[in-house]
Amino acid sequence: MSVLGVDVGGTFTDAVLLADGELRTAKVPTARQQEESVLAAARAVGAERVERFTHGTTVATNALLERKGARTAFVSTAGFEHMLHLRRQNRAQLYRLCAAHPEPLVPLERCFGVRERLGPDGVLVPLELGSLPELGDVEAVAVCLLFAFRDASHERAVAEELRRRLPRARVVASHEVAPEFREYERASTTAIDAYLGPVVSQYLQALRTAAGGAGLP
Questions:
Q1: How far is the CA of 95 from the CAs of 14, 86, 100, 102, in angstroms?
Q2: CA 12 to each of CA 72, 102, 153, 211: distance values in angstroms, whole numbers, following the listed order
Q3: Residues near 216 by beta carbon (within 8 Å), at least 6 away in sequence
Q4: Which of 103, 127, 135, 165 has the most neighbouring CB atoms within 10 Å?
Q5: What string of pLDDT tens digits covers the 217 residues of the chain?
Q6: Sign of CA dihedral 142, 145, 146, 149
Q7: What pTM does this model have?
Q8: β pairing state of 2-8 and 12-19
Q9: 126 with 157: CB under 8 angstroms?
């Protein structure tokens, strides 16, 4: 059995090959296009027929740190459009009253509300999909409605409507990725998922094409 592992870092790309009981390693410089580094590392370690290929990449980390993710919109229950910006109202630094938090991944002008509200006994305000505004030219949408972790029916309907309206955009609903009861944690996780999804998807498509040409699974 041959197992290949490739980890792409900011400066170097490392490869480890376990084949027929022998362990081989190699290190190559990381190229601007990370998929090229993966293939170079595989060649350097002598990988040919590989039964399993495991890969680690900094594509998502880099996009998050450099703020180079998708143009993302945020949709929440009407009246809670500021959720990503209010956070938990905690100070960035306890004894510095004017210290600022990092800017949210979604600016306020791309944060929208939809009329709906669920309570412990069911629907308090019926979902009005017609109240969902046009989101403009966006590549991704994060949807986080109040109490979707308990009842995802409204959030599911909003996500389906957005996918219908924006077939080319990545639409992520909070109950799909982080069904947690704290709304800020759920909202911020969903926003990051939406923000990074198109970047990672583009990379994986390039990697799949390159790996297929090189005979890697």
A1: 43, 19, 12, 17
A2: 31, 29, 46, 19
A3: 4, 39, 42, 47, 50, 53
A4: 127
A5: 789 999 998 899 999 999 988 999 999 999 988 999 999 999 999 887 888 889 999 999 999 999 999 999 999 999 999 999 999 878 888 888 888 888 999 999 999 999 999 988 899 999 999 999 999 899 999 999 999 999 999 999 999 999 999 999 999 999 999 999 999 999 999 999 999 999 999 999 999 998 888 878 7
A6: negative
A7: 0.87
A8: antiparallel
A9: no
Match 């799949």 to its residue by tokens: 208
By residue count, the chain amounts to 217
Token reading at 185? 């944690």
Query: What tokens appear for 208 in the block?
Result: 């799949």
Contact yes or no for 118/150 (Cβ under 8 A): yes
